[in-house]
Amino acid sequence: MSTPQPLPRCAAVVVNYGSSALLATNLAAVSAAAPALDVVVVDNFTTAGELAAVRELCAARGWTLVPSPTNLGFGAGVNLGARTALAAGAEQLLLLNPDARLDADALGRLQRVVADDPLVMAAPVVRAADGRVWSDGTDLYLDRGGMRATRKRPTDPEPRVEMWLSGACLLLARGLWEAVGGFDDRYFLYWEDVDLSRRVREAGGRLVVVREAGAVHDEGGTQGEGGQRAKSATYYRYNIRNRLLFAGQHLDAADRRRWVATALPEAWAVVLRGGRRQLLTSTAPWTAMVRGTVEGLALLHRAARTAAAPADGPVRVLQSFPDPRPTTNPYIWMLKDSLEAHPDVELTTFSWRRALTGDHDVFHAHWPEILVDGRTPARKALRQLLFVLVLLRSRLRGTAVVRTVHNLELPSGISRREVALLRWFQRRTTLLIRINTSTELSDRPHETVVHGHYRDWFASYPREEQVPGRLAYFGLIRRYKAVDTLLTAFRATTDPALSLFVGGRPSTPELRAELTALAAPDPRVSTHLEFLTDAELVAAASAAQLVVLPYREMHNSGGVLAALSLDRPVLVPDNEVNTQLAAEVGPGWIHTYAGALTPEDLTTTLERLAAGTTGRPDLSARDWSTAAELHLRAYRRALALVRGTGT
C-alpha cells in the first residue's frame, strides 16, 4: 500500500471588515484544527479599535496581518492577502470568509482534490448552522441573469446555465490563481466569485464541489445570505449593480439585451431576499435598488460601446518629477524605485519633450504647481504654455491623469493665471490618490495609498546613541510647522538635563532670524538652520529620545514617518490622522497634545518614555512593494474610467 504524498503548503486568506469577533470564533477554530495551515488576515480598515483587536488576535495566534488603511473591497482584499501568502511560499490558497469554518478533514479533502488536479477550483458543501445546505454550487441562468441552486436545475428542457462556486470557501492551486489573475477588484463586493468562476473555466480549469468535504456558514455573521431578514443597502446595491457589470464584461449583445430587459424584476428579487416588511419601514432598499440598477446599466452600456478594456499588460506611466537628484525628497526616490521594480509598470520620469512626444497611458502628477512656475517671467510663461499643450494632448490621446493629493489647497501667493491653470488641471484629473483616509475628496474617484516608510532608505546611515532628555525637530521649517512654539515651550521648561535640537532650512530669512533669536538665550538649545543631509537627519533623530513636530496643521507628514522609521517616538497634534496612525503602528510610538504646545506636554511625554520603548513600530502597511501594487490598481482604475469601462 503506497504512502500518500504530503499535501502542498496551504495558506488561508481571510478579509476582515469589522468582524474580529467572527475571526476569534471561526478562523481560530480552523487554525487550531489545522496547525500546518498558514493564515493571512487582511484588515479593511473600519475603526482604530477594530484594527487593534485584529492585531492582538493575529499576534496571539501567529497569523500574518496585512492592514489596509482603507476598505479595498472583498476581491482586492483577497488579492492583497494572496500576494502575501504566495510570497511566503504557499502553493495552495484557501479563500475563506470570516463567517465560515471547516475542519481538518474537510480541508485535507479539498487539498487532495486540488493536488491531484491543479486546474480544479474546489469548494465544500457549505451548510448553515442548522444543517441545511447553504451552498453546493449555484447556477447562473444566461437567458435573464437569475440564479438558482445547481441541485435544483431542471432537466427538461435543459436551461442555458453555468455553475459558479461561492467565494465563502474556495481552494485552488497557486498556478491556477496566477493564471486567472485573482479576483477582479472592480466588483468591490458580490459577484466577484461568479466572475472568477467564469474566468477559471476560460483558462481551462474546472469547478468541483467536493461532496465529502463540509463547511459551516455562520449565516448573518456579515451580510447573511438566507432567511427573510433585511440586509444592508450595500448588499442590495452591489448585487444589482454587479449583475449588469458581469453582463457587460462577459455576454454577447443578445444576452446583454435580455439582461437589461430583466434588470428591474431581478433587482426586485434581490431586494425581496430581505423580506417585504423592510420596504414599509425604510427607504434604503428602494434607494439601493434604483442606485444599483442605474450604475449597473451605465457599466453595461459603457462596455458595449467600446471593446477597449483596462490593459492587462504593463501600464506606461509618466511621472511629473524629473530624474531625482541627491537633494530630492526621498518619497520621490522610493516611489520611483518601487514602481520601476514592479513588472506591470513601465515608468518614465518627466521632461517636457517626453510629455509632448512620449507614448504613455497615465500621467501621474504630484505637485502640479511646479509645472506652471519658473525662475523668470519668460520661463514661467513658456512652462505654462507647455503645460496647456500637455493637457490638451492627454485629452486627445485618452491619457488618464492621476494626481497624488499631497496638499489640500492651492498654494498661496500664486498668480490668477496659475490658479486658473491648476483649477483646469483639477477638472481634467481622472483619479486622485490620497495619502491617508482622512483626506475628504467628496464623490471624486480616488484610491488610498499611504505614505511608505523610510527604513530601507535610512538603513545605510550610522545611528547615534540616544541622549536621555533630548528632544528634536527636523525638516523644512515653514510658519505652519510652529517651530517658534516649540522653542518657546521648551525654554519654559526648567530641567537642566533636557536639550533640544532644531534642524532644517527656514523658508524665509525673517523666519530664520526669529528662530535664531528665540534659541540664543537657552544653552540647552542647538540649531542647524540649513538643509539636513540624510546622514545628519539620521544622526539627529537617533540621538533624540522624542521627536516633536508641533505643526499647526498636520495632514500628511513625512517627518512623522521618518522618525518612526528610525524607531523614535513622536509628539504631534491630536487629530484624526494621528489617531489612526497611532492605532496602526501600535502603542507607545505616537503621543499627542491638544491645543497649543505647552512645556507640560514636553515634560509629561518624556516621563512616559522614561521606561523606554520595546520592539519597533508596525510599519508593515507602509511597505513600498504594497504601495507599488496599490498605485498600479489606481492606474488601472483611471484607465478604465477614461475608456468608459470603470467607475
TrEMBL record:
* InterPro entries in alphabetical order: Nucleotide-diphossugar_trans (IPR029044)
Annotated signal peptide: none
| CDD domains recorded | GT_2_like_c
Lineage, please? Bacteria, Bacillati, Actinomycetota, Actinomycetes, Propionibacteriales
Which Pfam families does the record associate with it? Glyco_tranf_2_3
The name under which this protein is listed is GT2 family glycosyltransferase
